[in-house]
Amino acid sequence: MTDLAQNRDPAGPLRPAPPVSLDAALMSAPSPADPFDAREPAALRRRRAKIFAHRGASGLFPEHTRAAYRRAIEEGADGLEIDLHLTADGEPVCFHDATVDRTSNGTGSVAELSLAHMRTLDFTSWKTPRLPGDYGGRHQQLMTLADVLELMIDAGRDLDLAVELKHPSPYGDRLENKALRTLLRFGWDPETSVIPAGEFGQHAVTVSFMSFYPGSLVYLADMVAPDKLCALLSSVTEAHVQKRLEKMPLAMAVRPVVAAVMRGTLRDSEALVWNGRAGIAGPGLAYVKDHRAEVKAWVARGSRLRVWTVDDSQDAGLLLELGVQEITTNYPARMLQAVTPAGRG
């Protein structure tokens, strides 16, 4: 047992919440809260949802690069969304895939490569052959969690950071522990989940934690308040099952087991939201369209909704009608315009 989780719940698998009548939940719930704190600047309160840049401004620049993060901040995104893996030498690095093959000129698993080796790879040419000079050189684009925190602290305004812990990880809960230790090194307050920013601490970086793996959120709950925990949700389709099976031996034989495990994980994640152990529900756009009643009930019960990945203004309009308070997008400037009433930007 680690020093960051002395009170970790040793209980077994999560138990789904008992069935809840959606009509009863909607009738008994308090009115949904305004998506913005009254203390927020007026310009921000005029917007109808917060905008998180998905892997940075990844529609324009290579995902998870310094260029993508800087562009998102410049465009006015309310927050950044990042994915974390651990390198072979234990550094939390911002990267989506388990391997570097898709988005670099290298090959191999992130977990088996050192940070120093990853720094030598080219993570931009696959998407953007030429980067603006003030966004850093080609070998300055790989970002660690510490790099992102430095960038956000120096931004000169309040920002949110949504950290997704990528599982399964060969390092287990070391991923969470390393992330927490990095945050603590930057002055993160576990009670508020805030890192002071600005020369006189007049700004803040507010951190929330996300995962598709419910065990990650249960583990973090010993240090992190429920309103800073986000259960990520995605409908389990045949296509999703097939993708999970791609590199598995005897794929056809284990298909029923894999599908059952995936659906069980989804139920456990939904239970975290229903039970209030995760104050933020993080469904994908397709999940929202398939589960509108549940989404309305969660909003009415006081949960926040952070929906991914939304790049179309019509989809943004649907989410606003449902009461969704936070939207994750590859195109922050586009979505900022979509959620801001005309003439009130």
From TrEMBL:
A GO molecular-function descriptor: phosphoric diester hydrolase activity
Organism field? Nesterenkonia aurantiaca
Entry-linked Gene3D superfamilies:
Phosphatidylinositol (PI) phosphodiesterase
Mind listing the GO biological process terms from this record?
lipid metabolic process
Query: Could you tell me which residue ranges the GP-PDE domain spans?
Result: 49-339
Q: Where is this region: Disordered?
A: 1-37
Query: In which domain of life is the source organism classified?
Result: Bacteria
Output the PROSITE patterns linked to this UniProt entry: GP_PDE, PIPLC_X_DOMAIN
User: How is this protein named in the record?
Assistant: Glycerophosphoryl diester phosphodiesterase
List, alphabetically, the SUPFAM superfamilies matched.
PLC-like phosphodiesterases
